[in-house]
Amino acid sequence: MQQKDMAQKAPKRKNLVILIHGLHQTTWMMRPLAKRLQAQGFATHQYSYRSMRDGIKTNSQRLHEWLSANHNPDQPIDLVGHSLGGLIIRDFLANYPKWQIGRCVTLGTPHVGSVCADYVWRLSPLIVGRSYADALDGKATSCPEHIHMGVIAGDKPRGLGQPFLQYHNRKLNKEDASVAENCAHDGTVYVSETRLECANDHIVLPVTHTGMLVDKEVARQVIYFLENGEFEH
Predict the structure, then answer these.
(1) CA 202, 205, 210, 212 torsion-angle sign
(2) Which of 206, 42, 205, 231 is nearest to 149 (CA)?
(3) Where are the alpha helices (DSSP H) in the chain?
(4) Is the entire prediction scored with pTM above 0.70?
(5) CA 232/CA 36 separation, integer angstroms
(6) Of the chain's two ends, which shows fewer C-beta atoms within 10 Å, N or C?
(7) 80 in helix, strand or coil?
C-alpha cells in the first residue's frame, strides 16, 4: 500500500525540450530560456542549424537525424522555437511523424509569412538566404491537426525590422479598427503574422522580437504551456 502511495506521489517525468533558435542566431541565444526550463526540471537540447546556408527542409531533416542518433523515439519530446525556429518545427512535425510530440511553443514566429522578410528579400536576398523559400514567405508546411501548439507574440515595437514595418504601416488605413490591430508588432514580426489556425492557444506579451528570449514572463508562459497545455491569461 505504501509503495502504491509513493508511486502516485512521484512527479511525472518531463519531456526533453528541443530549443530552436531563429534567423541569424546561434544556440547561445536560447541559453537563458534553457536555464529557466532546466530550473523547473526539464532536460533541454539547443539545436544548432545554419539559417542562411540551408533551407527549412534541410534543417528539419538534420533535427530528425540528430534525434535518431541521440534520442529514444519511445520517449516524447517538446519543441520550442523562436521566429524561424517555429517554422522548422512545423516542417519537422509534418515530415517526421515517427517522433512522439508532447507540446510545442513558438515565439514570435511569422506563421503566415513575414512582411519584413518580404522587403528584405526584394532589397537583398542574401540577408535572408535560403530561409525565405517555403518558410518566411508564408509557405511553410501545414501543422498536423493532432499537435498541441501554443503561440507567443510580442507587441513592443523595437528592433532591426522597425523601419520596414513603419513604412508598411503608413500604407495601412489606421482609421480602420481591424487594420489597427495589424499594425502591432515586436520590431520584426506583426502580431497578426504569428496567428496559426491550428494553435491551441495564443498570447501577446509586451516584449520585443529578440527580447522575448530573455524575458522572465515569456519563460514562465512557456513552462506553463508545456505543463498545462494552455497559457495563463
Answers:
(1) negative
(2) 231
(3) 2-9, 31-39, 56-70, 84-95, 115-123, 162-170, 177-182, 216-228
(4) yes
(5) 17
(6) N
(7) strand
